[in-house]
Amino acid sequence: MKEALKIVALCVLAAILYGIAHDMVTAHIALEYFTIAHAPILPDPTAVQMALIWGVLATWWVGLILGIMLALAARSFGRPPIPASELRKPVAGVMLVAAIGAVLAGAAAGGLYALGAIDISPYWAEEIAPGRHQRFVIVAWAHTASYVVGGLAGLFLIARTWRIRGALAA
Question: Which residues span the membrane (predicted)?
Answer without folding.
Answer: 7-31, 51-73, 94-116, 136-158
